[in-house]
Amino acid sequence: MSHKEEHKVTRATFSRNEQSGRSRRRDQGTYRVSERDVELLGLIAEQYAVTLDQLARLIDRSYRTARGLRDRWCNAGWTHSAKLAVNLPPFVWLTRQGSRVAGSPYRTWDPNPGLVTHIEAVTNVRVLLERELRFGQWECERSLAQTWRSRSDSRPHLPDAVLACDERIAVEVELTLKGRARLGTIVEQLSWDYDSVWYFAPERLRPVLFEFASTAPSNNVTVHGYPPERADWQRRAELDRTFG
Question: Which of the pair, 9 or 164, is modelled with greater confidence?
Answer without folding.
Answer: 164
